[in-house]
Amino acid sequence: MSFFTISAFMICFSIVAGESCTEITENLHYSCMGRNLSSIPPSIPSSVQTLDFSFNVIKHLQKTVFPVLSFLRVLDLSRCHIKHIKNDAFYNVKNLTTLILTGNPVTYFGPGCLNFLHNLQRLVLVDVGLVSLPLQMNNLTRLRELRVGTNNLQSVSLPPFMSSFKDFSLLDLHANNISTIKTDHTVVLRKIGRNMTLILSRNPLLYIEPGAFKDVYLRQLDIRSAFVSFAAQKVGLKALYGLNVKKILFGKFRGDFKFEYSDANILDGLCSIFFQEVYYYISDRPDELISIFPCMINATIVVVKNGVIGDMEYVFFHELKELYLISNHIAILPGKQLSHLHTLEKLVITYNSELFSAATFIDMPKLQYVDLSSNRITLKRCCSTLLSGTPQIRYLNLSLNAEIDLDVGAFDGLDSLEILDFHHTKVVDMGCLSVLSNLKYLRYLDVSYSSITYTNIYCFYGLSSLNVLKMAGNNFQGDVVRHLFNNLTVLEHLDLSYCHVVEVHSSSFKNLQRLRHLNLRGNNLMAIDFLTHSNLKQLTSFYVDKNSITSIPLDVLQKLPTNLSEFDLSSNPIDCSCSQTDFILWIIKNQNILKQPENIFCQSFSLSSDLRAADFDIVSCVHKKRLIIVLSVCFVILVVVLSVLAYRFQFYLQYCCILLRGYRSPGQQECSYDAFVIFSSYDEAWVMNELMENLENGVPPINLCLHMRDFQAGKSIASNIIDEGIMGSRKVIVVVSQHFIDSAWCRFEFELAQSRFMMERNANIIIIILEDVEERKTKKVFGLHKHLKKNTYLKWSRDPLSNMRFWIRLRRAIISTKQ
Ligand SMILES: *[C@@H]1O[C@H](CO)[C@@H](O)[C@H](O)[C@H]1NC(C)=O
Ligand SMILES: *[C@@H]1O[C@H](CO)[C@@H](O)[C@H](O)[C@H]1NC(C)=O
Ligand SMILES: *[C@@H]1O[C@H](CO)[C@@H](O)[C@H](O)[C@H]1NC(C)=O
Ligand SMILES: *[C@@H]1O[C@H](CO)[C@@H](O)[C@H](O)[C@H]1NC(C)=O
Ligand SMILES: *[C@@H]1O[C@H](CO)[C@@H](O)[C@H](O)[C@H]1NC(C)=O
Ligand SMILES: *[C@@H]1O[C@H](CO)[C@@H](O)[C@H](O)[C@H]1NC(C)=O
Ligand SMILES: *[C@@H]1O[C@H](CO)[C@@H](O)[C@H](O)[C@H]1NC(C)=O
Ligand SMILES: *[C@@H]1O[C@H](CO)[C@@H](O)[C@H](O)[C@H]1NC(C)=O
Ligand SMILES: *[C@@H]1O[C@H](CO)[C@@H](O)[C@H](O)[C@H]1NC(C)=O
Q1: What pLDDT, on a 0 to 100 scale, did the predictor assign at position 287?
Q2: CA distances (Å), 583 to each of 124, 142, 431, 614, in order?
Q3: Is 535 in the pocket of ligand 9 (CB under 6 A)?
């Protein structure tokens, strides 16, 4: 009740102003709570309007403690160890409207300490050790509230001048030491006006002089736990006769001393008090059932809490509009007692254990609001059997009960229902019948955890006004969920959490264009693709936490409803791999709309690691990607280079193959020619006219392999050279000339020949020097120079004699083959 709540100050710490105070609203509102200060720090601007200076140390409160703060309205000096309050202490803060001095051990109030506080409206002097109200409050003519609870006051009497305080409306005297109230104590109360609240709870009242409150008009009287004993309460209530009070609260707080109930008529005194609203806090288990209601028959609001009523007595209430029976161990629903009550609008019977009911509430034309929740009721027939002749019913709460069986036509006659709550109550037959079809005004339906299995797509047929549908913790049979919501076109809030939903079809929500809140928490969904086709343009919050979603494709994320501001994706087994970088990047970028983004974890196979999706190392994925690209490029380059090389050296490669082939079949190869002639085409004339003429036509004839004559057509030159020439001939004749040296083909052929015979360790290369070549030039041809130095060669000359010798030697060289 205290005007300030400390927590309010704690919530919004923003900037620390100056030394140690906290600025709550710039220039207006500061908190210096608990700073061990003894005066107001200079950092507080003179414009301050609200200052919390509680829990500091000001032993002597005097004028100099405060600088001039002429705008200050609210000052809290709770628990500042104040002992003395000097005259004119508040001179510099004279425009205060609220002054709080709670919890100071004040031993001295200067007679003029409240001088100048002409605007003061609330004065809080709770727990300051007051023993009387001698305070000089004459000038506080605007005072509205005086809170002097938890002191040692012994009387309710107010100083006479207070009767002129026109706005005075609250006197809180709770927890003082008031034991008697006499007629002359209430003189001022009687004069002070009709709008006052008097709180006398927790006083040790023993005696009230009868008639002390006669003709006193109060707005509210709180006498909970205000009497020392049961007897004192009974007598005290009687002594209050003639009191007019709008709202009276009596009974006791839980845990107070136990009353001894000796007779059933303890509340008789109430009959001579005029009141409209009565709040009776029994907070006890009387041994005997007490008669509660007879003196309440003229009340408009009756609230009875925390007692044992058993079976309610029959009372004919004249004007009762609201009846609350809360936590009263009522055993039987008071249908009979309340039926035909034409004034009752609101009925609340809650928190009664094991309430038995076969009751019906009949003919209550004004009844609008019925709350029978938390009673563990089992209703075998509902609901038009429970309520009939109640055409105005708008609100029906049957939640937290045991079991309710719906009839066919369950809501006939209850057509005005707007709010219906069955949550945590087993509801039988809701899932297969379309019993709600006449509730065209129903706005709110809660059937969460009601053990319903929906089998009928027409369950919600006719609910054309339904705004909120909560159906968490139920089941669907087959494909029902796909059609169930088809006609709920004005639905804004749908809770389908914990419903074992595995898949949502995109047409399930196709007509829910007004849907703003969709809760699918705790299902088994793996995808939310349905969102993209569902036309849920208005959706602002969407919960799919605690499902089995591993990833969401980028195109789905891009098509999320534009106004989505709350998206709960936490506690899903998010797949954090490099293939999901788009999704994870999206998570990182959209932390503002994600609810509990810190709980979006990567799916992990080891229990120990709980990596947050937002902490996943995307950079390393980028590196990996780059590495793969670089490697692929390298590979391509390598292949190209190898191909080029292979092309460039295809003859050698082929030759190598052939050699390998040769090795593989080392057997003697059949040679078709005696010699293969390597020569430049410029020397063709000599070869044809001389060489061929002499060797092939001689005796024995020597079979030469000449490329222009013997190479097979259609075969590549290289293979011809190798297959026919070098491999197919026993010897190789090399015709060295200037042209030979210059010809790349010849050099190549010679190299091949050399490598063949080197392998076979045969000096089967016969060199004919057709014309002299410079030594320097012979070095150009690989191996030729060396060959000429190491081996004898034949030299052609035009001289016929040496010519003759030449042919003989050549022929011998070709024939004399040692294989
Ligand atoms: C509060 O201030 C006084 C001096 O003003 C000092 O003696 C005392 O130790 C302080 N207490 C705390 C808790 O800082
Ligand atoms: C303080 O109250 C006086 C009237 O008592 C008024 O004249 C003056 O303007 C007020 N000062 C401020 C700063 O509101
Ligand atoms: C009331 O206020 C006036 C000044 O406004 C002062 O002179 C007088 O002493 C005050 N009376 C009391 C009882 O404080
Ligand atoms: C309460 O008042 C009675 C006299 O009415 C007195 O004897 C008793 O000591 C007071 N109790 C306290 C706690 O001051
Ligand atoms: C009665 O007092 C309350 C505050 O306690 C106030 O809001 C209300 O306006 C007052 N009514 C009348 C008629 O004075
Ligand atoms: C209820 O009001 C009627 C008159 O309206 C009065 O006669 C009767 O005594 C009242 N009963 C109680 C218990 O207040
Ligand atoms: C129904 O009663 C329960 C328990 O008292 C309460 O929690 C719930 O909010 C009520 N339902 C509505 C719609 O007011
Ligand atoms: C939806 O409304 C149409 C027209 O009133 C009706 O034909 C259809 O059966 C309804 N569907 C469901 C599932 O309620
Ligand atoms: C999104 O919200 C704004 C304002 O809250 C509203 O004007 C707009 O129509 C909404 N967009 C959609 C698609 O509902």
Answers
A1: 63
A2: 59, 65, 38, 10
A3: no
